[in-house]
Amino acid sequence: MRFSIVGLVSSLKRRYWISQGLQSKLIDLPNGTTMHCWIKYSSSSSPSALLIHGFGADGLSSWDKQIGALGNHFNLYIPDLVFFGESTTTSSERSEIFQAECLKSLLESLQVKSVTAVGHSYGGFVGFWLAHRYPELVWRLVIVSSGICMTPSSNDDLLKELGAADIKDVLLPNNVYDFKRGVNLTIYNMPWLPIFIYKDFMKSKGGKRDEKAQLLDSVVIGSNHAHPLPALNQEVLIIWGKNDKIFKLQEAHALQRHIGEKAKLVVIEECGHVPSIEKPAQLNEEMLKFLV
């Protein structure tokens, strides 16, 4: 049996989450989807927060440094999106709108009436559609490093810098060296790690590759067939790393202009694409100032 450092870290994280009062649940939805969700239910009087991870991650690997700060104030719902972690579907649907519908069905099955949604990157796409389609469910929204106003050409500079033909080559790399390059581009001032750690991570997290490629092919936001982006009525907090190379800061300003006066933008210095890992204390502080 192969020893995996990434597997060991995941196992330790699971133990930590359980010690913090979170429960791991698999929930069958009416549309042929099974969703895995971490849940911390404190009381019926506590508000609820839905934390939506980005592409290439899952709930457990994304929000480790948020569960303590947010768990003191909220009932927490931390799902794995479809084809990430333990979530799967028999449906042929693949868009981020489908992911949003799955989250709506998940919350319905858990009898959750109202949430603050927090979405990172691809999870921000999902959170945006959930908030737009179900404003009675999502009463506030936090968008972290998510290029919701992107156009079909928004990735051109990134692809050119990496020598890649398609965003799938970046998010679903074929070899460990491309994977390492993508990680170093994602995290600002990424510390050195030996190559075997990157190999281990690819092996541990690289499943369902074909399905994930279909998810990328089916993204509506920023596609050639996208309709004009709808407006939102909720208050929205936008949080961005100043040094984000995946979705550059201009995307944050475009999103703030699109949402209008109900949007507040916070820019975190010396931070790349993943504030939840790179600058967790500042991210938590800004979210709590907005939410509590």
Verbal overview:
- The chain has 292 residues and is an alpha/beta fold.
- It has a single domain, classed as Alpha/Beta hydrolase fold, catalytic domain (Rossmann fold).
- The chain has 13 helices and nine strands.
- The chain has helices spanning 5-19, 59-62, 67-71, 96-109, 122-133, 156-162, 167-171, 176-186, 195-205, 209-217, 249-259, 275-278, 280-291, and strands spanning 23-28, 33-40, 48-52, 75-79, 88-89, 115-120, 138-144, 235-241, 263-268.
- Strands 1, 2, 3, 4, 5, 6, 7, 8 and 9 form a nine-stranded mixed β-sheet that branches.
- Helix 8 crosses helix 9 (195-205).
- The relative contact order is 0.14.
- The model has no long low-confidence stretch (mean pLDDT 96).
- InterPro entries: AB_hydrolase_1, AB_hydrolase_fold, Epox_hydrolase-like, Meta-cleavage_hydrolase.
- GO terms for molecular function: catalytic activity.
- This is AB hydrolase-1 domain-containing protein.
- Pfam families: Abhydrolase_1.
Q: What is the compact description of this entry?
A:
GO terms for molecular function: catalytic activity. This protein has 292 residues and is of the alpha/beta class.
